[in-house]
Write a structure and sequence with these properties.
2 copies of one chain form a homodimer. By secondary structure, chain A is α+β, with helices and mostly antiparallel strands. Chain A folds into 2 domains: 93 residues, Orthogonal Bundle (Arc Repressor Mutant, subunit A), CATH 1.10.10; 57 residues, Ferric-uptake regulator, C-terminal dimerisarion domain (Dna Ligase, domain 1). In chain A, strand 1 and strand 2 form a beta hairpin. In chain A, helix 1 runs antiparallel to helix 2 and helix 2 crosses helix 4. Chain A is globular and about 50 Å long. The interface between A and B is large, with 37 and 38 residues. Strand 5 of chain A pairs antiparallel with strand 5 of chain B, so a sheet runs across the interface. The first copy, chain A, binds a DNA duplex through helix 4.
Chain lengths: 151, 151
DNA sequence: TTTGTTGCAAAACGTTTGCAGCCTC
DNA sequence: GAGGCTGCAAACGTTTTGCAACAAA
């Protein structure tokens, strides 16, 4: 039972945040949070929107609004990656990892490296309060490397 | 005279790339490359477009087209950062550095850390050919940290 | 001469905003 | 009951695209 990151706990974190900031605890906000925490992997606003239509109907505007709040209380992080749409990812229950991004096809793979993690986390600044970090390694995935040889 | 990265060399790299890919060597492409390499710092497509109007008139479409080519031959890199416009940066003649990004106001500061650099560069993958990497540390800059206390 | 490239304008795309009605507090 | 929140649709800003004219090969 290593489930410290069960949805109950996450929900409490969000509730606490909403209270502190005097934001309202609307069903939409919890529905979005729940959907995010019950699913795996990266997502963008539209993917989330489409996926949610089945169980709980929310507008895209509300999705964007809520993602903003979740970012603010660090329950999710935003990944720029390469494409034109912002990718999000939940923070709790995820092991810390880094990203390999193929410059050609945009495919994203995750990897984990303890040494890199430790080295980065050791860093701190007097005039900047670090909350999180992202490391992206760019290059060519095998598939694109092979295709490239032809052109 | 440590100018291995003078514009002449860069220009040759680009020429070689254009020939290899059988792309045409148009004056616009060289004008854009030259402008990028003769100026410092990050830029986005529109900034480059506006800046170039004075010396050489190119359309935004051509700017985007050429940036694509320059990315492809690794003469520039693309930074997603946080905002809605992609930021670019030349690769040669720049010391390797990392970025501090303020989640609140979007301010970007550069820093350099040899240990981090070495650790990351030691990494390699069998099925992925790394061309470059980006490390972003996110958090609150001093200015925003102070403002936040109020709300 | 051929065909890739340019410039322009229009279109597309993700995201934000204005506003009327709703619902949390 | 008041005011923040929602949904909708329209607006926005960045990037992409279609097409005719142009110019590199």
């Amino acid at each position: 039972m290593r489930e410290d990151n069960s949805y109950e706990v996450i929900r409490d974190v969000f509730t606490e945040y909403l209270i502190k900031k005097q934001h309202r605890k609307t069903p939409e906000r919890y529905a979005i949070l729940e959907h995010i925490y019950l699913h795996e992997g990266h997502f963008d606003a539209e993917l989330l929107y489409n996926a949610m239509q089945k169980d709980y109907r929310v507008s895209l505007a509300t999705i964007y609004n809520t993602l903003e709040l979740l970012l603010d209380c660090s329950l999710i992080v935003k990944h720029p990656f390469v494409g034109q749409t912002a990718q999000f990812e939940k923070t709790f229950g995820n092991s810390i990892h880094h990203h390999l991004v193929c410059s050609k096809c945009g495919a994203v793979k995750e990897f984990s490296d303890k040494k890199i993690r430790t080295t980065i986390q050791a860093k701190n600044f007097a005039s900047f309060e670090i909350t999180h970090y992202s490391l992206y390694l760019y290059g060519l995935c095998n598939k694109c490397k092979n295709e490239r040889k032809k052109s």
